[in-house]
Every structure is written in C-alpha cells, then in structure tokens.
Write a structure and sequence with these properties.
Blueprint: H1 30-40, E1 45-47, E2 50-51, H2 55-67, E3 73-76, E4 82-88, E5 97-103, E6 123-124, E7 127-129, H3 137-151, E8 161-166, H4 177-183, E9 191-196, E10 202-205, E11 208-217, E12 219-228, E13 232-233, H5 242-255, H6 264-277, H7 286-291, H8 297-302, E14 307-315, E15 321-322, E16 325-334, H9 339-350, E17 355-362, E18 365-366, H10 372-384, E19 390-395, H11 401-405, E20 410-413, E21 435-437, H12 438-454
Parallel strand pairs: 5-8, 5-9, 9-20, 11-19
Antiparallel strand pairs: 1-2, 3-4, 4-8, 6-7, 7-21, 10-11, 11-18, 12-16, 12-17, 13-15, 14-16
Helix pairs in contact: 1-3, 3-12, 10-12
The structure holds zinc ion.
GO molecular function: hydrolase activity; metal ion binding
Domain Peptidase M20 dimerisation: 215-351
Biased composition (Low complexity): 9-22
C-alpha cells in the first residue's frame, strides 16, 4: 500500500516552499534552520551513564527561548546533562497548563553506515539529514519555531505552556525527565496534559493519508540474563559451561512467539483500519490489518503483543578459558500493566537457573482517544490536511511521557508531519540516514502553531 505514491494528493505549492533542492538552502524555514543547528551539536547518548552531554544544545535552546522574552531555567542532573524548562503565560489562566516537550539527546550514529555525515546537518534533495532529524530534533525545532509564531509578535497561547527540553531520554530519562519530575516537580504545576514525539506523523493506508496519534506506550523493562557456571580450561570436558547455558536461554527467549492481546487503543486502531480499508475485522486478522499500515507496521505489529529482544552478549576473556559467567541484555516491552506477568513468563522460558537482573524499568501508559485535546488535535489536522483521518496508536517504545505521568500528566505523541508515501519514516527512528522533508517541518510548525494558539 505504501508503495503507491501517486495515489497521495500532492502537497499544495505553499506547503512545498523551501523544499525544492536547488533553492532549499537559500530559503530555509526557521524550523529547518533550528533543527539543522541542533543536529550539529553531537549530543550522543551511549547509555549506561556514557554520553556526550546536552549542555551546548540546551544553551542554544535557552537562547532561543530568551529571544522570545521567556525565562528558561537550566538544570544539570550531572555535569553536562542539562535540561531546559520555560513557562509561557496563556490568555486563559483558568485552563490547565499543557506541557510541550522534546529531548535533546540522540542515539549513537556510526558514520561508516551513513551516506552523509550524521552530525553535519546536511540539506539535500529537499530533506534535512542527520542524527536527530527524526528523533527528535525535528520536533524540538518545531516547538521553538511555532513558539515564535505564537508569542513572537506579542501574542499568547490559549493556556499556559510548560516548554521542556529534556536530557537523557534515550537512556530512559533518569538524568532528564525523571530527574526533573522527582527533584523539581513544581515546574509542572497546573499541567494535566503533554504532547511530544513519536506520533502525529502521516502514514499511507489504502492509498489514503492518515495520521497516527500516540495515546499510549508499552512498558519498558531492560533486564540482564546471567548464567553462572564453573570456570576452567578450554581443552577439558566441561558440562557446566555458562556460555552454552546462556546461549540456549537467549535463543529460546529470542524465538518465543508472544500472543496477541488487544488493548483499548489497539482494538480501536484495528477497527479504524478495517473501516478505512472496508474489510471485516473479524475475518482479517490483527497482524494483517497492521501490515496494511505499510511503513508503520513495524511499530504497530509490536504494539499488539509483548516483545523481548536480545540486544547484547558479554562473556569470556581468553580463547582457552571457560568463564564462570555469561550475560545477555534483553529489551522487554510489555503491554501496559503486564510487566510482572511477563517477567514471570520470561523466567519460565529461560529456566530457573538463569538469573534475571532488572537494570531499568518504566511503566506503560494508555489514555483514551477522546477529550478536548484529542478533539483539538483532530480538528487542527483537519484544517491543515482535510479529510485525512486521525487514528490512535500504542507506541511499542517509550518517551518522557512516562516520567510526566507520575505527576498525573497525560502524555500524547503529537509531532505533526505530513510525509510523502515513499519515505519509510518509522524505520528512521534510531536508523541509518535519518532525514525529514523540509516541507514536512514547515507543515509541522504550522499545525503546532495553530494548536497552541487555539487549545
Ligand atoms: Zn525520541
């Protein structure tokens, strides 16, 4: 379905401004300019406490906020790990505040795999290329550019906004959103809702453009499997080899087929997909319906069940020595509320002699696809891309909304981007050659400006 770009209505010429290859550099929209600048700060977060840090990018962002007359506060959870928060006064102070947030860190990029320098902020073929172009310096820039539109000439948003740029999202937010929520919760006083990344982008469904609005997130459990055995000489008979036992456990877990279980969100999504495609959801299975979403199907299929992927192996220190322990990293994403059940099932799968050490754990979230914010998002998108349906979805990954939820703030993924059908946007999260069309950034800025002005 996603391979038929000709069935998608062309963007209006106004929306394509700045997107043609020859003129892009000269007419760069503010959004692309900020996103490019942010990509040039290498804020790589390697995980497990190793990071290049976010301070330079945080100071850049703070400077943009100051230029708009705001008073940003900078918070260092650790040296170099800087988050920025600023409050924008709304017209109607009786309304609860809305948190609009992004993260400043990115995952590592190996330049050898990329066709451009991942930290150069290259503009090519009407797209901005670089680590963070998709996740999520694009939205960071859309937030700043739309703020300029809303308050730059003395205007105000409808309600108070809490603008936050977090450090450390890519390592679970311990040194960013979780730090701020725990140590400085007053920053979010009066806020009840939040919008941020991994939603709001368009997909192609049955030849028609549709938008995915993220209304939930799976839970995250990062565990280490540890097999212990006896150390010994590599030349001997050795039945109790930790590496062999760990390898068996990892293979079993990696090949385990987790059953489909629909939540309110995924049930509603599949129902909507079936309606749009005009098929009977009782006759077309959940996986098949998910596959109809084309490029987004990787995300959506993973939202229908738990996943538990092996992501790392560590064992041994010498070719002729059997080590006494072997370890594997497993990235578990369970459906919301099933965390303990899934951990017990994993223990069954790997066997009682494998120790499971929880390294990091965070909750799942699910919010109903209704209410004033949803109505505002749907009507705003309708104004900017008439006739394109908005569908709820459960994110198979996680965002800083998890941390905000501990303060009772309902978070949504809404970083609006109207994308061409040929672009496999979901694959570029943490992927190679991350890039975003310049005209999609312009669209996002415009939609966000409209939403913040009116909601
Ligand atoms: Zn992200």
């Amino acid at each position: 379905m996603a391979s038929s770009p000709n069935t998608i209505p062309a963007a209006s010429s106004a929306d394509s401004a700045g997107a043609s290859p020859g003129t892009a550099a000269a007419k760069l929209d503010l959004t692309a300019e900020i996103a490019r600048d942010l990509i040039r700060f290498d804020t790589t977060n390697y995980g497990e406490g190793r990071s290049n840090g976010e301070t330079d990018a945080a100071e850049y962002v703070a400077q943009k906020l100051r230029a708009l007359g705001l008073v940003p506060e900078l918070f260092d959870s650790e040296p170099g790990r800087t988050s920025v928060v600023a409050r924008v006064q709304g017209r109607d102070t009786s309304r609860p505040a809305l948190v609009v947030h992004g993260h400043l860190d990115v995952v590592p990029a190996d330049p050898a795999n990329w066709s451009v320098d991942p930290f150069a902020g290259v503009i090519k073929d009407g797209l901005l290329w670089g680590r963070g172009a998709v996740d999520m310096k694009n939205m960071d820039a859309m937030i700043l550019a739309s703020l300029q539109d809303v308050i730059g000439s003395g205007g105000a948003p409808e309600r108070d906004l809490v603008i936050a740029f977090f450090a450390d999202e890519e390592a679970g937010g311990v040194l960013g959103s979780h730090f701020l929520v725990n140590e400085h919760p007053h920053l979010f006083d009066g806020a009840t809702e939040a919008i941020s990344e991994v939603g709001g982008y368009s997909i192609t469904l049955g030849g028609q453009r549709a938008y995915l609005l993220q209304t939930g997130e799976k839970a995250l459990i990062w565990v280490k499997l540890v097999a212990r055995g006896e150390a010994g000489h590599g030349s001997r008979m050795h039945p109790n080899n930790a590496i062999t036992r760990l390898a068996e456990a990892v293979a079993k877990l990696g090949r385990h087929e987790w059953p489909i279980r629909l939540t309110d969100t995924t049930e509603q999504l599949l129902g909507e997909i079936a309606r749009i495609l005009d098929v009977d959801p009782q006759r077309v299975g959940p996986d098949e319906l998910a596959l109809a979403t084309g490029t987004a199907s990787g995300f959506i299929q993973a939202s229908l069940r738990t996943t538990a992927n092996p992501t790392g192996l560590t064992a041994g220190y010498k070719h002729n020595v059997i080590p006494d322990a072997a370890e594997a990293l497993i990235d578990i994403r369970s459906l919301p509320g099933e965390e303990d059940l899934v951990l017990a099932q994993i223990q069954d799968i790997v066997g009682a002699d494998i120790e499971i050490v929880t390294m990091h754990r965070d909750i799942g979230l699910e919010t109903e696809f209704s209410g004033p914010l949803i109505d505002a998002v749907v009507s705003t998108l309708e104004r900017h891309d008439p006739g394109a349906p908005v569908l709820p979805y459960l994110l198979s990954a996680g965002t800083d909304n998890k941390a905000l939820s501990t303060l009772g703030i309902k978070g949504y993924g809404f970083a609006p981007l109207r994308l061409p059908a040929y672009l496999d946007f979901p694959a570029m999260f943490h992927g190679v050659d991350e890039r975003v069309p310049l005209d999609a950034l312009v669209f996002g800025r415009r939609v966000l400006t409209d939403l913040l002005s009116s909601y």
